[in-house]
Specification:
Its main location: membrane. Pfam families: Plug, TonB_dep_Rec_b-barrel. It is found in: Cell outer membrane. The protein has 9 helices and 45 strands. By secondary structure, it is mainly β. The protein has a single domain, classed as Maltoporin, Chain A, CATH 2.40.170. Strand 32 and strand 33 form a beta hairpin. The longest helix is centred in the first third of the chain and has 24 residues.
Length: 821
Amino acid sequence: MVSVTKRSKVFYTSALSAGILAASGLAYAQSPAETTKKESLTLEEVLVSARRSEEGAQNVPVTVDVLDTDGLREATIVSTTDLQQNVPGIFLGGSGGPQNPLYVIRGQSKGLIGTTSPAVVSYYAEVPQPSWGSAVPQYDMANIQVLKGPQGTLFGRNTTGGAILYSPAAPEHEFSGFINGTLGRHKQTRLQGAVNIPLIKDQLAARVAADFHKRDGYVKNIGEGDDLEAIDTESFRISLLADYGALRNTFIYDSFSSDNDGFNIHPQTVYEPSALNQLGIAEEVKADVERLKALGPLVNDSAFDQHERNDRITIVNRTEFDFNDNVSLLNLFGYQETDLDYAPNIDGLGLYKSPAVEQGLMLAFGPAYQDSRTSIVKARLIDKTKQLSNELQLRGTAFDSRMEWLLGAFYLKNEPDEIGQINGTTVAQTQYETSIPGMEVGYTNGGAQHFFLTDESRALFARTEYDLSETLAVEVGVRYTEDEFELCLGSDTKPQWLGSDPTYFDEAACRRGDTDVIVNSAVVTESSEALTWTLGLNWQATDDVFAYGVLRHGYRAGGANGPIFSGDLASYQTFKPEEVDDLELGVKADWNINEIPVRTNLSYFYGKYENAQADLAGGVTTARNCTPTGSAQPGVDPDGDCSSSNDPTGGAIVFNIGDTSVKGVDMEVTARFTQSLTVSVNATVQDADIDKIYDQPNAYIDAKVSSAIPFLYFTNSVVQANVNYSIPMGKTAEELSLNMNYYKTSAADKGDTDIPAYDLVNVRADLYNIAAANVDVGVFVNNVFDEEYAISSSISSRALGLDSFVFGPPRLFGVDVRYNF
């Protein structure tokens, strides 16, 4: 690893920028003909579908960031983490690894556990993705759009934070395609490609795309299992486009599979007093944490053989029909099957001899458990779901096209994939070793919880935009939503052995309360409804200046905690919907300053949230000498029965903390100084407050409410800058494109702890169409200065006594070769 001090890092970054600028000046001085062309410098128009139809981003009344095909390639976007470092104001904290991203916009996300609805929904070809296992493979994409602020009037599910739109490349009626190969550090090999196949001239076409990606793990694992953070994914997509006059139909079948040995979690801080003292292992853990920190975040000592697997099938069918020039119909059908299974070492630590746990195991299971060793927290999540959705839109124009209108209906159902297969979460288990042959390693039954969730959402919506004049328009949207869920949940009655097939625990057993495999089981139902709306005023002041103001009322459905609570926790079995009133004011403008085109986009946002949903960690019975009182005891027992068997899953509970607010500014400045040089700087600056904390009927929760997390991974400021220098290369190549990307984020708040601030520099160089042979070659280096940085938190609990972080990748480099045909 190359060590670069902060001072030298700033020097090298500045030197690189200066080098590009100097090269630009030299090229400009050597190209007199370019002087006469200076007046023709322009910034490219960016097309978005933020309002469900294609239009210029500079005329859309919403804060939206877009990366098109070229932008995705030149930023070397291959994962959701790469997306975060190219779009300010979005945080992608791991909710269980790369295959289970947690999207955060303006402080809004989803609970880390249980049945919380997401505040930010990702969409694939405009079809909403499931809450779990929603990572989208980044290949053959037309663009990725990030919409900030409450959504729902036009897009699928109601959200209070935003939406992320992944748009795969569509079939075309001309034969074309590409093949791309990548070789990189840690034996990275990637082969991807796509081909357009015209089947019937101008009527029927197919596009076939595939991606095969492998890389060895860059985290050395000196414990059980292979090295971590490897990549092993296979993706395949076939799209069919049928175009017959007024009728247009696009069908997509997408298959994705990922299988690796887990992700890197590294312990950082030990807190006392905590549960570690209760277990009698605080000193051992502190020594282990110091040992691991000395080894560095790219060395892991796993307590068991971790894994992360995700298999997903997605089917999308989009049908469009034009009745006439003024009225059209759209039907969007989606079906997805998700099979997600991962077992991370979420505390980042090993096993320890705890007298308290050893005594409990011996009492429960016999003397064979003498000299057993136990963990702090391990985890496994298995989620097998199927999701069906359908959206119907009727849209058109009226009054000589002065009015655009849309009427729509939306339906979604997400449910367990099969009776007889486990579906839900198995989390926060205590791992132990025994002397029983064949059962040397196992999980206790103290926290193995299962959820079998059927979630349905129905909505009717309408939206219209009316031109009051040639420059002024009013936009109104309204949506009525009903959300229902039915949840069977319970706990294992026996240990689940590591490596065993857990499917013995199925939904049927949960529903019939089969005490051979389940305890404390029950069915919980909850429903909610809301009327949400949008009211906006759009002003096209000039051809190049667009201003807007929009008021939005948004909504996020309620949910449930598990297992079945009793006593003082009973009222926390479910939590209410969250609602937001949001104001956004924006100005988007293109200028010509001294013959240099400059784009400035600025938006101010302010949101007030009622019944804000918050995560609370550490809700577990911790004292060995706990005396049942029937009432919650602060710091000792959350429900009054002194039993850990019905404590909240993983010690985490979601509840309505109170009223909160978020305000801030999104900024974008882009300038094209010459035909060759373009510089852009983007930033988000924001602040969040808890305006009012509701009285809590539970003394245990009331005492801990100050450590609750209503704003998960909230960052006060993010800055992203990009320098692009492109020049023609004559007969050598059509163009040489140099890109430098800089990303800086402030600390990300997660309750009791902060994910430290960090900054990164990525560079890339591409030669396009070398020797007119349709061959492109690119060289990239990500994390140029080999920074060590945490991208999210795995465990963050002072009550438990530990902070463990998920660390980002080291310096990665490689070469791309693409053949276009």
